[in-house]
Automatic annotation (TrEMBL):
Signal peptide: none annotated. PANTHER family: CNH1P (PTHR32507:SF8), NA(+)/H(+) ANTIPORTER 1 (PTHR32507). This is NhaP-type Na+/H+ or K+/H+ antiporter. Keywords: Antiport, Cell membrane, Ion transport, Membrane, Transmembrane, Transmembrane helix, Transport. It is found in: Cell membrane. It is a multi-pass membrane protein.
Length: 396
């Protein structure tokens, strides 16, 4: 255990010191962490031996996504949704559903042996994009502001939107397996969404009222106030899960409400939450590289690899081009927006989640998800800076 901890800490320390140098080239954090897990792990050198079972991996991934969901929702500027020709709104309301539909149709073509409902689950878990993987794009001032903000808001909200869709398909799967009435599946979805949303709203409102009361009486300490929103994110997630709802919906709704209520101090209070999310993300990417990739590698087939390639290209890019029809963006800019829809943390967590459900082809679905995320980390990481430089040069 201590050897694992020492290796992880040494790598994290080294990367934190030289991050500016790495990320100015063709590398990014998730790529480096994933490669570290893969090379140091059992598949190659074998000096990193993460002793984590399926339940431990699920808890780690779920907790990471809950804090990321809360932080992304709290950071989202909803006024941007209608700005810049409604770019984020078009990507979320038109591009996202079309991406799920095209992913399902391609799945029917490549995996005829997989039940259609399970293919819908696959299409949903690979639909959300990852802001961390696209950081070289969304934080680069060379990228036009509308494109940066559009991609940032899209990646911040689409994983939260995909959660209820995924829950609906999983509930239908349970109903199909148990031969229960369809109304039971609908009831399960409404219950998970309702409990999650109510938990998020109630807890965030209580936290805001307590924070205002403490501020009015000057009872706050700057050091401890940084833990307010990370604590709230975990509280929303864990309470909703305890009550039988969706913790992800609780965290997402709580974050959206926090964005509205904690206006003045929001960015200061969110710093610690984002740092928590970053640390947990590092651990998740290392474990993904050490355990999930070698496992998925043994299950790869030509069709799995082909679906992963299509997921990052046709399945994502065509819906984006359709959703941006009629806007003032030229073709290359629209293609740029379509390409930079990297798959990452949300897809990993959703893939781990489905292992708890009675899927006939869970091995195939998880392998497809792992292959897609691996390709995304490599291809989007390597292409970000060169294409940004080209785009900037063409504009100026």
């Amino acid at each position: 255990m201590y050897q694992n901890l020492a290796l992880l800490a040494a790598f994290l320390l080294t990367y934190s010191i030289f991050a500016g140098r790495f990320e100015s080239r063709l590398l990014n954090g998730p790529l480096m962490f994933m490669l570290a897990g893969l090379i140091l792990g059992p598949a190659f050198l074998g000096i990193l031996q993460p002793r984590i079972d399926k339940d431990g991996l699920r808890i780690l991934a779920e907790l990471t996504l809950a804090i990321v969901l809360f932080s992304d929702a709290a950071n989202a500027d909803l006024k941007v949704l209608r700005a810049h020709e409604g770019l984020p709104l078009r990507l979320l309301m038109i591009g996202l559903p079309l991406t799920m539909l095209s992913g399902w149709l391609v799945g029917i073509w490549l995996f005829p042996q997989v039940p259609p409902l399970e293919l819908a689950i696959l299409a949903t878990l690979l639909a959300p994009t990852d802001a961390a993987l696209g950081k070289a794009v969304v934080s680069n001032p060379k990228v036009p502001a509308p494109v940066r903000e559009g991609l940032n808001v899209e990646s911040g909200l689409n994983d939260g939107i995909c959660v209820p869709v995924l829950l609906m398909f999983l509930a239908l799967l349970v109903e199909e397996q148990t031969q229960s009435p369809l109304s039971l599946a609908v009831e399960l979805v409404i219950e998970e969404l309702g409990i999650g949303a109510i938990s998020g709203v109630a807890l965030t409102l209580i936290a805001w009222l307590l924070q205002r009361y403490a501020a009015k009486h000057h009872w706050q300490a700057p050091m401890w106030s940084q833990l307010t929103l990370p604590g709230l994110a975990i509280l929303c997630f864990a309470t909703a899960q305890t009550l039988g709802g969706s913790g992800f919906i609780g965290a997402f709704v709580g974050g959206l409400l926090a964005s509205f209520l904690f206006t003045e101090q929001k960015h200061h209070l969110l710093e610690a939450s984002e740092e928590f999310a970053s640390l947990l993300s590092v651990i998740t990417w290392v474990v993904f590289g050490a355990i999930v990739i070698p496992w998925a590698w043994n299950n790869l087939t030509l069709n799995i690899c082909l679906y992963a390639v299509l997921s990052l290209t046709v399945i994502r890019i065509v819906p984006v081009l359709i959703s941006l029809t009629g806007t003032g963006f030229d073709f290359e800019t629209r293609l740029f927006i379509g390409w930079f829809g990297p798959r990452g943390l949300a897809s990993i967590v959703f893939a781990v989640m489905i292992l708890d459900y009675p899927l006939e082809t869970s091995r195939t679905l998880v392998s497809v998800a792992a292959c897609t995320v691996l390709l995304s980390v490599l291809l989007h990481g390597l292409s970000a800076n060169p294409w940004v430089s080209r785009l900037a040069g063409r504009i100026h």
